């Protein structure tokens, strides 16, 4: 009854309704075509790393350029530095702790938030690959010391003396004074943190180091700590750190930077804020170096440091770029 009344009132009958719907469908057919949703710009692969590691980014780029994924790119990229005995803060040829042990820290993180890490690992040239095995072959995230080493052998890694003639000589020299102090930049800041985006737009990161030279035996820095030395969130971007690890751990630096990017900051702004947070906790102190490096989902990059001298290396379709981080903390 109500319905009939309404139809009458509105002047619509069932037939009228039908013809209205036919009309509507005709209208739809004649409608100009909806503007196609704009296709997002093609994703451009890119690899970046702390310091001036040209060969490492070139390797990562080689993987990306062949259509490889970002996880393989960062692993293979940082392996170049781990094997390079002239880099005395990463892998083979890394400087020892004060007791003469060469101990390595590394971590890796993929697009799905999976991560693996090794701390205080001895006698293995490629801690990054052991970290990846921890991620992929165990239900754990971090393996330490002897357990990590044992696991590496089980996975087929070979035992190797990580000392070189040069680092042994330096250590013998160091023992004469046994002085442990942090010195800006020359404090062996050659830790490699690498971030990459592949052609699918997926981000991965890796970080590897022998840590601070002549550290107290057993010391672990920020580099293998997820969120401190490295963090990746595939929705947002990634960040990595180099420098005095204790300060990076105190602010969970890389996680902080990724979260700042999530809130809308550019990679550059996020790195600047990260350094400022550290300096706020260290008023009056400037006797240490920290360098942060970040990339966002769009492939924009940024870096910032406490003191001048921090560089980062970028490799994309544009080729190699070396950015000296001119903007450093002045506060
Ligand atoms: C650490 N962050 O073990 C590392 C050291 C470093 O370049 O970055 N060296 O604290």
From TrEMBL:
GO terms for molecular function: hydrolase activity, acting on carbon-nitrogen (but not peptide) bonds, in linear amides. One of its GO terms (cellular component) is cytoplasm. InterPro entries: Ntn_hydrolases_N, Peptidase_T2. The active site is at residue 191. Substrate binds at residues 219-222, 242-245. CDD domains: Glycosylasparaginase. Keywords: Signal. Residues 1-24 form the signal peptide. The record marks 190-191 as: Cleavage. This is N4-(Beta-N-acetylglucosaminyl)-L-asparaginase. It comes from Flagellimonas pacifica. The lineage of its organism: Bacteria, Pseudomonadati, Bacteroidota, Flavobacteriia, Flavobacteriales.
């Amino acid at each position: 009854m109500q319905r009939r009344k309404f139809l009458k009132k509105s002047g619509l009958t069932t037939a009228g309704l039908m013809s209205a719907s036919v009309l509507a469908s005709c209208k739809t057919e004649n409608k100009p075509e909806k503007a196609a949703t704009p296709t997002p710009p093609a994703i451009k692969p890119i690899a970046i790393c702390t310091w001036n590691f040209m060969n490492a980014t070139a390797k990562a780029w080689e993987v990306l350029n062949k259509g490889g994924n970002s996880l393989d790119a960062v692993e293979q990229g940082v392996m170049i530095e781990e094997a390079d005995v002239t880099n005395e803060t990463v892998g083979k040829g890394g400087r020892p702790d004060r007791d003469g042990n060469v101990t390595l820290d590394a971590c890796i993180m993929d697009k799905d938030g999976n991560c693996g890490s090794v701390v205080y690992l001895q006698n293995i040239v490629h801690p990054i690959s052991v970290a990846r095995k921890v991620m992929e072959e165990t239900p754990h995230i971090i393996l330490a010391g002897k357990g990590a080493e044992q696991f590496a052998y089980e996975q087929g890694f070979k035992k190797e003396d990580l000392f070189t003639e040069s680092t042994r000589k330096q250590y013998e020299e160091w023992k004469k004074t046994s002085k442990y102090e942090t010195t800006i930049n020359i404090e062996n800041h050659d830790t490699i943190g690498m971030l990459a985006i592949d052609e699918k737009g997926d981000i991965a990161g890796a970080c590897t180091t022998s840590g601070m030279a002549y550290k107290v035996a057993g010391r672990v820095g920020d580099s293998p700590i997820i969120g401190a030395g490295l963090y990746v969130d595939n929705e947002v971007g990634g960040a990595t750190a180099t420098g005095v690890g204790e300060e990076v751990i105190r602010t969970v630096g890389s996680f902080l930077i990724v979260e700042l990017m999530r809130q809308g900051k550019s990679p550059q702004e996020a790195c600047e804020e990260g350094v400022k947070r550290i300096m706020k906790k260290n008023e009056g102190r400037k006797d240490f170096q920290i360098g942060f490096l970040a990339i966002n989902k769009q492939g924009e990059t940024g870096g910032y440091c406490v003191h001048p001298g921090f560089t980062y290396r970028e490799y994309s379709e544009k080729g190699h770029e070396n950015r000296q981080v001119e903007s450093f903390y002045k506060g």
